[in-house]
Specification:
With 273 residues, the chain is α/β, with parallel strands linked by helices. The chain has 2 domains: 48 residues, no CATH class; 188 residues, Rossmann fold. Helices cover 33% and strands 12% of the residues. The chain is built from 10 helices and 6 strands, in the order H-H-H-H-E-H-H-E-H-H-E-H-E-E-H-E. The strands form 2 sheets. A 4-stranded parallel sheet has the order 1-6-5-2. Strands 3-4 form a two-stranded antiparallel ribbon. The longest helix has 13 residues. The N terminus is likely disordered.
Length: 273
């Protein structure tokens, strides 16, 4: 079977055991606390969490159920300020009748059709993403995917969802691909097919940290290779949008390979680098 035909559900190093989200029932949670077997702490700030997530409403209730303290659950709400509708860059609200687009997107529109974005990359959301990405906590994908699902409620459902792929050397070093973990969790939440085999990253591009937007764009160019995606509507998932160069390159390759529509979903957008 060709790589494009394999619908892998996990993209992990060999032998790794997938983590599942811990559903804390009231009885078991209180019993283990009473016996002194465990002390649950908020994954963002480390504050001990005494209850089992009851008492919230709406998105906050879902975050409390994943073990966040009430303060972090409130702080992790979606961003509601002005931002570029194409790339998510935070912007001041425009005057009436003016398009809500940044200068870069006016000059060079991104190759995706829709964007779903939860918040800005700072505060508790930044801490949570860093713990998920670099702290060996892939099970946080289920909490974060819930945020993505809420953000994407305005988009039409796709034929398949996939994360931005990593080169195998990078995947071996980290042990898991955070974008793929988000895509898997999102697929489970919304009953969507997860198709990581549709996009590969055959070359390991240099690290992007500290580079300008132009340097990032040069690094990302030619990094991806798509399978036959003719006529498909795809959701492409990543954790953070910095300049958008990686997503632009990946989306452009999917469109070149025949995708009818590509929407981008991300947890957070950084300010202009």
């Amino acid at each position: 079977m060709s790589p494009a035909g394999r619908d892998h559900v996990r993209e992990r190093r060999p032998g790794a055991v997938p983590e599942a989200p811990l559903r804390r029932s009231s009885f078991l949670f209180r019993l283990t606390r009473l016996l002194g077997f465990s002390e649950h702490r908020c994954p963002v700030c480390g504050t001990p969490v005494e209850d089992d997530g009851a008492g919230g409403s709406g998105p906050e209730a879902g975050m409390l159920a994943h073990g966040l303290c009430p303060a972090c659950a409130r702080a992790l709400g979606p961003y509601v300020g002005g931002r570029c509708r194409a790339c998510g860059l935070p912007l001041p609200w425009p005057a009436a009748g003016q398009p809500l687009l940044c200068g870069d997107c006016m000059t060079s529109p991104p190759p995706w059709q829709g964007l779903a974005l939860h918040g800005q990359y700072h505060g508790p959301l930044r801490q949570l993403i860093l713990r998920f990405k670099h702290g060996g906590k892939p099970a946080l994908a289920f909490l974060l995917a819930g945020m993505l699902a809420d953000a994407a409620s305005c988009l039409p459902l796709p034929d398949a969802v996939l994360g931005i792929p990593q080169h195998e050397d990078h995947l071996r070093r980290r042990g898991y691909n955070q974008a793929h973990e988000l895509a898997v969790a999102l697929g489970l939440l919304l009953s969507l097919p997860v198709r990581p085999g549709l996009l590969r990253r055959p070359a390991d591009s240099p690290h992007q940290t500290g580079l300008t937007a132009a340097q990032r764009q040069r690094n990302a160019a030619g990094s991806f290779q798509a399978a036959d995606v003719w006529g498909l509507h795809l959701w492409l998932v990543d954790d953070i949008i910095t300049t958008g160069s990686t997503l632009r390159a990946a989306c452009a390759e999917l469109r070149r390979a025949g995708a009818a529509r590509v929407d981008v979903l991300a947890l957070a957008r950084t300010p202009r680098p």
